[in-house]
Amino acid sequence: MTDKWFQDYKGLLIERREQGVLLITINRPEVLNATDAQLHNELSRVWLDVDADTQTRVVVVTGAGKAFSAGGDLEWISSMTQNYAGMKQAFKEAGDLVYGMTQCSKIIISAINGVAVGAGLAVALMADISIMAEEARITDGHVRLGVAAGDHANIIWPLLCGLAKAKYYLLTAEFIDGKTADQIGLVSKSVPLEELMDEAMRVALKISQGPVDATQWTKRALNLWINQAAPAFDASLAFEMLNFMGPDATEGVSALMERRDPDFGA
User: Fold this and answer.
1) Which domains does the chain have, with CATH numbers?
2) Quick one: which of 106, 101, 144, 143 has its CA closest to 122?
């Protein structure tokens, strides 16, 4: 059950499980767990609370219902176009999410149960261990929206699947299923959907019962590879936000809301 430590989170269902495992469920199933302003803020700051929580050793994060998180809420994204204040807030939170997960001492496991896009995909792939349903589909999707791939992709995709694959999938915004993501190294492993949560909890319990300092310090040392890519991430995030001040993002959001192909003036 959830205690008072995490009671102020509205878009996240946070439950304690056995052996120091904390289950975080992105909980807006009525909109496929799309990220609105409140959820984006919560995803950017929950890792500070997790890090400070002495009862937690391992986190499992998943999505309620059929999706992990189906991208940003279009009304919220639309509100950021040509909006310097809104863009600046999103810029800070996007950085806090990525750096918060990297710097959180607790081991984070993502159980990717369905479609994952945008900030939800950042959570899925910035996890220390990512377990994906074979049937699930992911895409970065930023270029489809008319903005640079800045949420998380530049800091982690080249490390996970190599620069050639990262460029291909980030520039085309093609969807990737769980089997393919596993094959190219973008996720730790894939399993059938019906086995996903059992496998995620099995791995979580195995780690939680191990030596705490050794696992946490192994994470800290391995993440030095990610830290080296921080300048590239900061640049990509800045380019994404710059795009929100231009015409392509306005057209990309309008096209998605109107369910039509965008016209980027090619």
Assistant:
1) 4-195+208-258 (3.90.226.10)
2) 101
pTM of the model: 0.95
Q: Is 136 helix (H, G, I), strand (E, B) or coil?
A: coil
pLDDT-based confidence at residue 266 (cuts at 50, 70, 90): low
- H helical segments located in the chain: 37-52, 74-80, 84-103, 118-126, 142-145, 153-161, 163-172, 178-183, 196-208, 212-227, 230-244, 247-258
Q: Which amino acid is at 193?
A: L
Residue pair 113/217 in contact (Cβ under 8 Å)? The answer is: no
Euclidean distance between CA atoms 235 and 150, whole angstroms: 8
Q: Could you give the C-alpha distances from 196 to 109, 139, 190, 265, in angstroms and in order?
A: 12, 20, 8, 43
Q: What length is written for the chain?
A: 266
Select from 218, 199, 210, 216 the least CA-distant residue to 19. 210
The Cα 122–Cα 140 span in angstroms is 9
- 185 by DSSP, 3-state: which? coil
Q: State how far the Cα of 228 lies from the Cα of 242, in Å rounded to an integer.
A: 23
Closest to 137 (Cα-Cα) out of 123, 165, 117: 117
> CA-to-CA distance for 6 and 46, rounded, in angstroms?
8
Alpha helices in 71-117 (DSSP H): 74-80, 84-103
- β-pairing, 21-26 vs 107-112, is unpaired
Record the tokens describing residue 91, joined without a space: 């810029």
pLDDT digits (tens, 9 = 90+) for 91-109: 999 999 999 999 999 999 9
Tokens standing for 100? 């918060």
